[in-house]
Amino acid sequence: MILVREGPGLQEVVSALEGSGVSPVWSEVSQTVYLTDFVTARRIPLEDALRRVLPEDPRRTPWLDRLSEYFRAAGDGTEWSILYVPSAKAARALRVLSRDPETSGRVSPEKARVRSFGFLWFPGICLVAFLATRSRKACPFVLAAAIPWLPLWFSGRPSAALAGIWGYLVLASLGMECEREPGRILGVWSRDAARRVLPGGIVFALLSVTDARSLPACLVSILSAGFLVISLENHYLRRAGRYLHRVFLGPSLDPFKQRRDRDERWSRRLLAALAASGIALGGQGLFNLFPSAYSRGEPGTLSLPVPGPSAGKSLDAEAVERILRTRSGPDLPNLADAVAHRAYQEALPYSRIGTREYGSLAPVVLDRFSPDGSAVIRVRETALEFDDPWVRAALGEEAGAGIGAVLAGQPGISTAAVRPANRIRPPRSLALKDVFFYIILLAPGAFGAVRPVRRRKPTFGGIVRGVSRR
What we know:
18 helices, single chain, elongated
């Protein structure tokens, strides 16, 4: 979302962004809506539709009346136009507008700040520092193992940052299993190592699949970690080829104690990962407890459209009617309104003025009369049917461009409302219910850290047999 001072030449601003490779750019001048001329319904620019529709025009709908509010902001006596660009290109769009002398003075200073990486990278760095101080020969590997997970920590997404913490924990712990050859995983893999990393692996998998937008980044990090593991394995194989035999390693006199010590070290690492995750979740949750800590300007200086709670997971004919029937409050129109508006415009030419109810997806039925001798027969025919396939097709078209694409990018059927800027929740901050959700996902890690290790108490004979096997 970019704010540009209203005035002539908005189309030139959009063209400048698109000419610089920032695409798509959705604005009020590019938004289109369906409008009927009482013969057929077709898409026309929003500005043309608003000029054609008079205050008492039966074609007026909530979608048409309030659609412009998505593209306008007001405050402190200044009118602003809102441009929507993909989040990955927002920083580039701001640089393009700030460097152009004709547009630099029209960009809102509150929106000219490039989004920072936030706080979510800090817990991961703390975990790296903790493991590096607790290791000896493995310290270089512990630091190198953090490289594949840096994109997740700096992504600004809570699920990605938490997944990066636990992915790093698994990789670093596996590399620290072999103290003689730190970082070697493929050559020293064992069932005990798999048992120890299983809780962390489960947490990483759960966190990766809960956010579909973070899944590609998680897969890239996994591939990078695999490349690091293979590179270290090749390094140790080449080094081993220069020796006549492997370096002798004395057997442990108490293998049970050795295994217990490894379990304790792994438990400490799990607790450190849980603490890092708690710091990340706690920092995100504090934004909700202390909203004044995050402000985008002076209180009440600017009101912006912001997403609200989801009205449903999916949209079909029944869901459209239910959402519009139960809606209350000053919320902006959503995707259900977009579908209902199109159905209303297509059905209006077949209905008498005032008889078609907005929000109804009932089929359009026409009475046709034909002579049959001395009698007249009435035949009822369905002219239009707004069933689930029609709703899916209409929704797909709306989600392809304009504000429909912005709303479709939100989870579920998102609602929206206009709120003062100082009451807007910070980007990617978590509601308290989301914090509890992530705590549930961390449960396997907590279970792995506190579960008791039940083993038979070693005897002298068992110790001797364990040494003799070596």
